[in-house]
Structures are given as C-alpha cells and as structure tokens.
Design goal:
92 residues; alpha+beta
Length: 92
C-alpha cells in the first residue's frame, strides 16, 4: 500500500466524514505549519510519534575517496526526525 499525502487525506475524509477538499486542505495545512516551524529553526514535537527538527552541520574537512585529496565540505542545515520511544517500541 502506498502511504502518501493523498492516502492520508482520503483516510481523514473517511474518518471524519468530511469532504475530500477539506481533508486535503487539513493535511496540506498541517505539513505547511511543520515546514514553517522548521524553516524558523524550531522543532515540532508530536507526542508518542517523534520530533521534527533542523540539524546544523558545521563545515569540515573531508577526503575524496577516489583521489585521497583533502576537500572542504561546506556547512549546511538539514531536516531531521527523531522517533519517540513509543513509536520505536511499536516498530520493533
């Protein structure tokens, strides 16, 4: 089964007995808010599920494995998800 935003909207529509459009707007709105918070550098905690946050990685020196040449790796930020203990236990 393919679990994506479309599937989630259909599930929400059936669960709440709402329209497909309203369910899609709710799903899109939720993900938009999580994204906005992460862009601001904030973390989003969903109890029993996990934490969405931004990870900042400092610039560092690396080695090209083909040539052995030292290279400079730029600093960057990346989205990160840490699963809650409950979720980890359920998946095991």
């Amino acid at each position: 089964m393919k679990y994506d935003k479309k599937w989630l909207a259909e599930w929400l529509m059936n669960k709440l007995g709402t329209t497909k459009k309203a369910a899609q707007e709710a799903v899109d709105g939720m993900f938009d808010e999580v994204t906005k918070a992460m862009v601001k550098g904030e973390q989003v905690k969903v109890a029993g599920f996990g934490v969405f946050k931004v990870s900042r990685r400092a610039a560092r020196e690396g080695i090209n494995p083909r040539t052995g040449e030292k290279i400079q790796i730029a600093a960057k930020t990346a989205p990160k998800f840490r699963a809650a203990k409950q979720l980890k236990e359920m998946v095991q």
